């Protein structure tokens, strides 16, 4: 913030006058105490779980607005859930700064694509991404899927692999397992090993 | 704990007596160093709650990051490796404002109402009234307040006065995973601290003690030090007190001298006006001064 | 965790070894502090570094990385020699009394049955003596020389405090002090808890580290009691859940194994996978495996799965070998993987030997990254100067980066390490076009299905016919999926005790996995999660925080698998007659009619003590295993082996074994990786990698506050090593292993000191892992540039915790 010389002189002059007046026993009215206004007075609260470690601390997400139709909820603060029997409202340094994860400048916002030998990302549509991925998968599966090993039915696909998340929900984990195994993929793993 | 109304007890550069009829609870934060794991949750929660974001710095070979308190870092974990009685100790101090009963910053401050002490014990800065002179930084026996390069105002821990005003504990207290930071009435906090000493002595910390230094009239951030006989090992002053110059600054003599000076300046001003006419402030739109 | 986070407060002694919970799990660690303050508990920390957990410990010992079994084996010997065991517990609740097959033996670091060429064991001799009915023989006096107790005593006789000191670097006197404190909990009124995490698992002997503590806790009688147990703190927020759900190469949901090609049909599979009881009167709970497995196939394949078609067992892929993450990257390196998906995972930073990963990824035809954040993996093809020197133009991989929502923008459940499934709610809309992972998976699947429907192709059936009855096909709701995981009755399920009643009516959500059937009349996507979403609704969303006993088990908060049980094996909290071992910790006891207490009994609730059913109902002997039979790759008793990169040239516990027994003889080493192992002459220092409390893996470098709190990569080195190499605090240093080099700042500390190992000084180098070339922190090298590509012999967890480096001033 820049201060103009005029403001600076005014401030200084005011300060001087103030000091002097106070010395005479006057207390200027503008020196009334005011604490910073409490910023969560009317925010909406949502119960959630910290996504970092396996303690599973309860958190409360404080959103701007009361979830009225025209209000776009923006999370403005994250705090520990005092009811939670494990963390009892506490958070570690990572949990206490979850707000900066939600609003990280490095969040991905749209699908991107990088072609062979290219040096930069291109923004693409979900439709493009999903259909191109499905095409690559199908071509590989049709070519490399093994139905029989000797006379044993094995129905496996080993040339495409999947590394699953370890902080996504159980529901997405189950869904991942279900569709990946339906495709016949064997190389499905998660972060439990590393 | 009762809802604090945050009545004012005293304010800087002001002689008027704030309303005193109501009685409010004196609060305190208790930092039990024997339970502190130096995780910096307090630092993180402080930045997040107070909408502060310090610069991403560099590592200089210490766990302490950022390297010092600043206008963006109102609390800081300081790490000290010490060998005491032949045993390695990693002493971790949660540094920040100690909210003195007799605050040196407030005594030193020449700007009316820029520093307040609430009846509950919190010492709070009102940046709107701060003139950026930095006297408070010199007056603080703990070297806590920091002048901002952005707006030439001084900042420090408010003990989350905005949270306490609505009946909540400070952000660092709430976050602290191990309960090393507690919050409540000063009486309760001292009682708890005494209780902790029994356990510490039993575990071999014979010199464990409470840090509530009398030289500043006691503090509203009280510490339990496992090595109570050597606060310096944690980076704390052994006997913090408000300097004699500051004491004099607030005396009647100084006030009389101040009034005399003021009249002298006033007289000089009138003389100047009579000789040269009014002192003009240059018109708006002149060059910006970036502090 | 066999127990749970808040239960730690009930402990008298807390052993933290192989973990650093004050830094990695601070909010769970509060219960250690609570135990110290409210229970006068003593905290023991054994670690290669004086960590922030050590900062509040009562006893700390610095050990050399990779020597935990030497230390713990020493503890086992100390307990046995000094009779610091809970005898009645050991006799009744463990296999100490079981007689071992006469052919079993151990010599010079190897158990019987080793095949050096295959680097594996024939485990036939690792077995009990059985009678003609197949039942195991026992000697309750524990005197028979072939019983497990005596074999164990013989095995650990070598683990003397002196040898422990020579190998681990912990002075014998300090070791004995700690062993004594651990042994104090063999008293029936004292309990120890063990807290560990990746400090124990990320070794080539990782699984055996855990076996050691399981044995110690059984010997001390600390399993099944409040304040006791073996507690894996685990890493990510839902790594427990993802593992429970079988999202691993060798698993299906509920720890059912993915069939191998040796199990080509349902009958063979179930026969092989369903254990038979080996002692009379035991529950052998896994005899119900067919019910769980068929219900899973019904959940996956719905009406398509019928009795006639073996519930479409043929649709499941059959493994020919393991496809763990190391195996997958090896295959990729060999050019045998064409496509790779990374969902919320940054393998370039998390898999060892970055120098091998970049060429591996560069051989892919396509890669798909699904993540809320930028990852190094997603930009592996970009040149980041010294941090990632690649030629983008030469990399032919097509890369897709799909934005996913984060926790705040979706509903769903996460399972924490206490096995608690907790539901969370969406608070805001995701940024831009980000989509929930479920939708992304549905989107990929439906796009592929569309192609197969249109074009046909190789074995389209499981893709084209997979039931997909979700209300919005492209966006199945978390509620729908959670209900499917829990499972439901597909027909009325009659109550076997009273045929006029039903356990569940057709279409109803099931209340418990005890109601599952093997005939196709029930479905359950993950049997251990049955009970999480019942006819009474979402049990994971429960928020009753009451703790009626004060023991901290809050039975009304969320939902724990299995069956909302908070402490596993809790029948063992009572003596064989059904009375609490310790009145202060009364938990599950026999009231004359049934087992009762503040938790769901982990037992047949109406089986009286005189029936002799033993508490460990998940084993087919009913007791805890001090001797692991054929369950482990490298032996039924844990044995010390050196890390694959070690400062020693022979194993002090088996000096005659030579190179054969220096390191884990059953660990898998790929060709080309062995050549990249360094020797002590060139790389004299032992390095270990770890996390810091300020960061979470490679995510928080994208968050401003965490970046402020730990902005730049560093290595921790002791003062002796610093002066040896002329390094000052804050200097830039180069850390070099046989596989690569990284540049970091030096943090010179008193908290790591040189250890005397076999008469020589050994220095430890600490390497936090959190930095990379993406993020708000200072750009840095990925630490796994240095780490060796070799894993644990059982589950292939990489050896990140012990390898060799050199350190020089940059």
Describe the structure.
Chain A has 194 residues and is α+β, with helices and mostly antiparallel strands. Chain A folds into three domains: 34 residues, no CATH class; 59 residues, ADC-like domains (N-terminal domain of TfIIb), CATH 2.20.25.90; 82 residues, no CATH class. The longest helix of chain A has 19 residues. By secondary structure, chain B is an alpha+beta fold. In chain B, the strands form four sheets. A four-stranded mixed sheet of chain B has the order 9-2-11-10. Chain B has a three-stranded antiparallel sheet with strand order 1-5-6, with no helix packed on it. The two termini of chain B are 43 Å apart. Among the domains of chain C are: 241 residues, Dimethylsulfoxide Reductase, domain 2, CATH 3.40.228; 140 residues, Rossmann fold; 155 residues, Barwin-like endoglucanases (Beta Barrel). Chain C has 20 helices and 33 strands. Chain C has a six-stranded mixed beta barrel with strand order 26-32-27-29-28-33. Classes of the chains: A alpha+beta (194), B alpha+beta (291), C alpha/beta (810). Chains in contact: A-B, A-C, B-C. Chains A and C meet through strand 2, strand 3, strand 4, helix 2 and strand 5 of A and helix 2, helix 10, helix 13, strand 12 and strand 13 of C. Strand 5 of chain A pairs antiparallel with strand 14 of chain C.
Main attributes?
A: 194 residues, alpha+beta, N-terminal domain of TfIIb, two-stranded antiparallel sheet, 10 strands, 22% strand, elongated, disordered N terminus, B: 291 residues, Alpha-Beta Plaits, 2 domains, four-stranded mixed β-sheet, 8 helices
């Amino acid at each position: 913030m820049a201060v103009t010389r005029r403001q600076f002189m005014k401030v200084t002059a005011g300060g001087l006058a103030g000091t002097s007046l106070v010395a005479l026993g006057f207390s200027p009215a503008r020196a009334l105490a005011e604490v910073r206004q409490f910023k969560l007075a009317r925010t909406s609260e949502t119960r959630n779980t910290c996504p970092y470690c396996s303690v599973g601390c309860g958190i409360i997400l404080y959103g701007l607005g009361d979830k009225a139709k025209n209000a776009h909820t923006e999370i403005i603060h994250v705090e520990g859930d005092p009811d939670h029997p494990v963390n009892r409202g506490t958070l570690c340094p990572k949990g206490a700064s979850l707000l900066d994860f939600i609003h990280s400048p490095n969040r991905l916002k749209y699908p991107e694509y990088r072609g062979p030998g290219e040096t930069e990302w291109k923004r693409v549509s979900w439709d493009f991404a999903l259909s191109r991925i499905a095409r690559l998968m199908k071509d590989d599966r049709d070519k490399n899927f093994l139905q029989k090993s000797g006379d044993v039915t094995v129905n496996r696909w080993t040339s495409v692999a999947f590394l699953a998340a370890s902080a996504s929900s159980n529901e997405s984990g189950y869904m991942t397992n279900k569709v990946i195994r339906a495709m016949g993929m064997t190389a499905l793993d998660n972060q439990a090993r590393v | 704990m009762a809802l604090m109304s945050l009545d004012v007890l005293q304010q800087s550069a002001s002689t008027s007596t704030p309303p005193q009829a109501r009685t409010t609870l004196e609060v305190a934060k208790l930092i039990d160093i024997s339970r502190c794991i130096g995780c910096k949750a307090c630092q993180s929660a402080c930045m997040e709650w107070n909408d502060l974001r310090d610069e991403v710095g560099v590592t200089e070979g210490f766990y302490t990051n950022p390297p010092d308190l600043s206008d963006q870092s109102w609390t800081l974990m300081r790490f000290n490796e010490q060998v005491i009685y032949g045993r390695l100790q990693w002493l971790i101090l949660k540094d920040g404002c100690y909210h003195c009963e007799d605050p040196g910053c407030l005594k030193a401050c020449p700007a009316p109402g820029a520093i307040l002490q609430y009846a509950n014990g919190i010492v709070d800065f009102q940046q709107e009234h701060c003139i950026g002179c930095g006297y408070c930084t010199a007056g603080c026996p703990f070297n806590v307040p920091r002048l901002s390069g952005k707006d030439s105002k001084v900042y420090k821990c408010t003990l989350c006065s905005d949270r306490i005003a609505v009946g909540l504990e400070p952000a660092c207290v709430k976050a602290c995973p191990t309960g090393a930071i507690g919050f409540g009435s000063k009486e309760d906090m001292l009682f708890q601290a005494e209780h902790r000493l029994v356990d510490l002595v039993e575990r071999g910390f014979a010199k464990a003690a409470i840090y509530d230094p009398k030289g500043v009239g006691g503090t509203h951030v009280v510490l339990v030090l496992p090595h109570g006989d050597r606060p310096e090992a944690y980076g704390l002053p052994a006997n913090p007190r408000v300097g004699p110059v500051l004491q004099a600054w607030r005396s009647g003599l100084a006030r009389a001298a101040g009034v005399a000076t003021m009249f002298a300046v006033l007289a000089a001003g009138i003389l100047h006006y009579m000789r040269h006419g009014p002192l003009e402030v240059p018109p708006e739109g002149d060059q910006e001064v970036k502090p | 965790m066999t127990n749970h986070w808040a239960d730690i407060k009930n402990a008298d002694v807390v052993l933290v070894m192989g973990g650093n919970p004050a830094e990695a799990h601070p909010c769970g660690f509060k219960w250690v502090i609570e135990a110290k303050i409210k229970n006068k508990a003593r905290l023991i920390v054994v670690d290669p570094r004086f960590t922030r957990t050590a900062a509040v410990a009562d006893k700390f010992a610095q050990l050399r990385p990779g020597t935990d079994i030497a230390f713990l084996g020493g503890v086992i010997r100390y307990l046995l020699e000094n009779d610091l065991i809970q005898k009645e517990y050991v006799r009744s609740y463990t296999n100490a009394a079981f007689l071992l097959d006469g052919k079993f033996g151990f010599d010079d670091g190897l158990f019987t049955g080793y095949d050096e060429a295959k680097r594996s064991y024939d485990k036939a001799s690792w077995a009990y003596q059985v009678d003609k009915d197949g039942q195991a023989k026992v000697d309750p006096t524990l005197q028979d020389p072939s019983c497990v107790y005596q074999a164990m005593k013989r095995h650990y006789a070598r683990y003397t405090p002196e040898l422990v000191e020579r190998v681990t670097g912990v002075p014998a006197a300090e070791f004995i002090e700690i062993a004594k404190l651990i042994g104090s909990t063999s008293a029936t009124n004292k309990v120890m808890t063990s807290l560990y995490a990746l400090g124990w698992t990320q070794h080539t002997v990782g699984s055996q580290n855990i076996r050691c503590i399981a044995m110690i806790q059984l010997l001390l009688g600390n399993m099944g009691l409040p304040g006791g147990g073996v507690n894996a703190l685990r890493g990510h927020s839902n790594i427990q859940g993802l593992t429970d759900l079988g999202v691993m190469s060798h698993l299906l949901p509920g720890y059912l194994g993915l069939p191998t090609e040796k199990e080509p049909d349902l009958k063979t599979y179930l026969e092989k996978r369903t254990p038979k009881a080996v002692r009379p009167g035991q529950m052998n709970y896994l005899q119900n495996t067919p019910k769980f497995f068929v219900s899973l196939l019904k959940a996956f394949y719905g009406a398509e799965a019928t009795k006639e078609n073996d519930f479409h067992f043929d649709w499941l892929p059959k493994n020919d070998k393991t496809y763990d993450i190391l195996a997958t990257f090896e295959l990729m390196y060999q050019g045998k993987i064409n496509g790779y998906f990374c969902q919320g995972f940054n393998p370039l930073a998390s898999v060892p030997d970055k120098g091998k990963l970049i060429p591996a990824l560069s051989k892919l035809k396509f890669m798909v990254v699904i993540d809320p954040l930028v990852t190094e993996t997603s930009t592996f093809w970009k040149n980041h100067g010294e941090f990632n020197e690649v030629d983008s133009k030469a990399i032919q991989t097509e890369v897709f980066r799909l934005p996913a929502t984060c926790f705040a923008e979706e509903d769903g459940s996460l399972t924490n390490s206490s096995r608690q499934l907790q539901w969370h709610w969406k608070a805001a809309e995701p940024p831009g076009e980000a989509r929930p992972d479920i939708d992304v998976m549905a989107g990929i699947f439906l796009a592929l299905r569309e192609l197969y429907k249109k074009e046909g192709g190789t074995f389209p059936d499981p893709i084209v016919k997979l039931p997909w009855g979700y209300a919005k096909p492209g966006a199945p709701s978390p509620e729908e999926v959670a209900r499917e995981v829990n499972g439901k009755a597909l027909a009325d399920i009659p109550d076997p005790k009273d045929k006029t009643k039903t356990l569940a009516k057709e279409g109803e959500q099931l209340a418990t996995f005890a109601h599952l059937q093997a005939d196709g009349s029930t479905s359950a996507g993950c049997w251990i999660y049955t009970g999480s979403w019942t006819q009474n609704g979402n049990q994971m969303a429960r928020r009753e925080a009451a703790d009626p006993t004060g023991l901290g088990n809050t039975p009304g908060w969320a939902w724990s698998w299995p069956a909302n049980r908070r402490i596993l094996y809790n029948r063992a909290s009572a003596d064989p007659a059904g009375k609490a071992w310790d009145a202060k910790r009364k938990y599950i006891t026999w009231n004359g009619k049934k087992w009762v207490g503040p938790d769901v009994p982990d037992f047949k609730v109406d089986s009286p003590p005189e029936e002799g059913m033993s508490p460990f109902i998940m084993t087919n002997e009913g007791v805890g295993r001090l001797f692991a039979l054929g369950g482990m790759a490298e032996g039924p008793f844990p044995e010390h082996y050196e890390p694959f990169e070690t400062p020693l040239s022979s194993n002090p516990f088996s000096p005659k074994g030579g190179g054969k027994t220096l390191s884990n003889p059953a660990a898998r080493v790929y060709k080309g990786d062995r050549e990249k192992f360094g020797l002590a002459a060139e790389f004299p220092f032992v390095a270990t990698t770890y996390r810091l409390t300020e960061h979470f893996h490679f995510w928080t470098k994208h968050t401003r506050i965490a970046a402020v709190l730990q902005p730049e990569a560093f290595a921790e080195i002791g003062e002796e090593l610093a002066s040896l190499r002329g390094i000052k605090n804050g200097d830039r240093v180069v850390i070099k292993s046989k596989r690569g080099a990284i540049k970091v700042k030096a943090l010179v500390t008193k908290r790591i000191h040189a250890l005397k190992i076999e008469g020589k000084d050994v220095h430890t180098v600490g390497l936090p892992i959190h930095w990379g070339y993406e993020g708000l922190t200072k750009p840095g090298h990925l630490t796994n540039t240095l780490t060796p590509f070799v894993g644990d012999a059982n589950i292939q967890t990489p050896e990140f915790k012990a390898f060799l480096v050199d350190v020089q001033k940059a």
